Amino acid sequence: MPASLLAVTTETYSTPVLDWHALAPLVILMVTLGLAIIVDSISARRTSTVLPNLAGLGMLAALIPVLTLAISDDRSRELFGGSFVVDRFSLLMSALFLVAGYVTVLLSTNYIAEGDYHEGEYYFLLVASVAGMVFMASARDLISIFVALELLSIPAYLLASWRKRTQTGIEGGMKYYLMGVFASAIMLYGMSLIFGGTGHTRLVDVGEALHGSFGSEPIAVIGIVLTLVGFAFKVSAVPFHNWAPDTYEGAPTPITAFLSVASKAAGFVALIQLIFVGFLGRDDVVRPMMFILAALTMFVGNVIALRQTNVVRLFAYSSVAQAGFILAPLAVVAADDPAVLSGIVESMTLYLVAYALMNLGAFAVIIAVSRRTGTGEMDSWGGLFSWAPALAVTMAIFLFSLGGIPPMLGWNAKFRLFDAVVSAGTASAYTMAVIMAINTVISMAYYLTLVRRMFVDDAPDGDHTPIKVPVPLVAAMAITATVVVVAGVIPGPLSDLAQSATLAIAG
Amino acid sequence: MLLNQFLVLAAVLFCIGVYGVIARKNGVLVLMSVELILNAVNINLVAFSAMTDSISGQVFALFVIAVAAAEVGVGLAIVLAIFRTHKTVDLDQVDLMKG
């Protein structure tokens, strides 16, 4: 055996050719990270506006190479022997992560400066986590998926436990951490089995091996299931969801928004890449697993959300239920039907974009309202329309969009999900569509309860003094609400974008 | 065959680790159980790598070791902060919000 190992090392080494254009978004984020450390250590005042601006500008600057890559002719660029692929799918998802990161910076600016928080480390970790997500969008190798997952998770564990002097804050962070490392350890065991069976870590090679003789071995099933479980945790699918409500409640609210949107989207990106590039050879394993996960996630998330009295917890369970909706198309994955496959990827990317915008916007309103009420209890939302009409209308837009009422963006996105599921045409696909329809109705119940509170109920203490919303929060709401409404009325451009976001599966 | 013995050892370690995570109530012991699972992964990866003559398994194992160190650093920091606020690392008592 030692001889065989030596034989490996005698292969000639060739320097990899780096496509700096394809790497530019990550390079810019890394430079921003370095600058953030330097600026933090040399600035005398702990509360300055330099760091949030630096972090925000860094993410916007990283969007520029994403855009130039999108308009360049190369539809897919491969680096490092195919373990890092920049294609249309990864570009759209990178843009989503960068915009979500930027909106999170906007949400954080006042929240972090006014609370007793460490600013420098906060923005450093936020940018690091976004860098992990952008990396995840291009990772097409078991090793790079693992590294990307940890790069986005480890800063997120720290950010989730940022309120370390309160008991609930650190408790939520610890639950997130323990469930997270446990899930990633399970995922690694699954990956090690897949590597053992196929002898490859590149997803394309794994996919080919699964189509071959390894595909019929029982160990392939164990490997696939354990690997997918790791990401089921990341997207807070039931039964791996019980960290979510506590973590969301304990974390600083901007981080709650970030976790429920960006971190969840990163989990879905990894799931899409693993299933569509790697595991299509065993779609008979993926289908029932995703069916059960999606159905359970929708029902449990929605039913528990019905009896929440805290707005942040309500959105925690709502985001669990929304994850079920996004998982639903994966329950009809069929390797032999390319039309169904492209429909699934398209509808999931569209819904991820829509969900990110409407959830971030809703959290912007929650942060703005709790600046005055100081609590997340739903009673404090009574009569919001009478003292903050603009906030109430904006929130209603996001709630209608989350529930799927036309003409908001959420309606179009949800319609595409149904379309992708039904187009598979099997009995389980129709069952899944019925489950989704039932759950859409249940979710409307609690979204509309909040709307009723804002517009019909009276203010709890008769206090009608208007509210002052800081500029960054207004900007965050304006960006998200505009896209949710405009893209809902004119669905064409965003749908075309999602349609063009194809995975480079071949090669 | 030699490979089987490595795989059995890894599987046993994995099971002990999973049992530890589920059954143990002490935060530090849960962390150690996760480490056991990661070691099972490393044994698997290196054994498979030697069997298939593919170097990527060993590279993967190196990444796992490095990342696990970073993870545990964060984990110990969180456990320390928990001890400061709750005066205990017993996970049953660190449950104010109850899911």
Question: What would you say this structure looks like, in words?
Answer:
The complex is a heterodimer of chains A (507) and B (99). In chain A, 61% of the residues are buried. With 507 residues, chain A is mostly helical. Chain A is 74% helix and 2% strand. Chain A contains 20 helices and two strands. Chain A starts with a helix and ends in a 7-residue tail after the last helix. Chain A has one domain. Chain A is globular. Chain B has 99 residues and is mostly helical. Chain B has a single domain (3-97), classed as Helix Hairpins. Chain B is elongated, with a radius of gyration of 17 Å. The termini of chain B are far apart. Chains A and B meet through helix 1, helix 6, helix 7 and helix 10 of A and helix 1, helix 2 and helix 3 of B.
Detail the topology: elements first, then pairings.
The complex is a heterodimer of chains A (507) and B (99).
Chain A lengths: L1 H8 L10 H23 L7 H22 L4 E4 L4 E4 H27 L4 H20 L3 H19 L6 H32 L4 H9 L6 H17 L9 H7 L2 H26 L4 H24 L4 H17 L10 H36 L10 H4 L1 H15 L5 H14 L4 H29 L15 H19 L2 H9 L7
Antiparallel strand pairs in A: 1-2
Helix pairs in contact in A: 2-3, 2-5, 3-4, 3-5, 4-5, 4-11, 4-14, 4-19, 5-6, 5-11, 6-7, 6-11, 7-8, 7-9, 7-10, 8-11, 9-11, 9-12, 10-11, 10-13, 11-13, 11-14, 12-13, 12-18, 13-14, 13-18, 14-16, 14-17, 14-19, 14-20, 16-18, 16-19, 17-19
Chain B lengths: L1 H22 L3 H26 L3 H31 L13
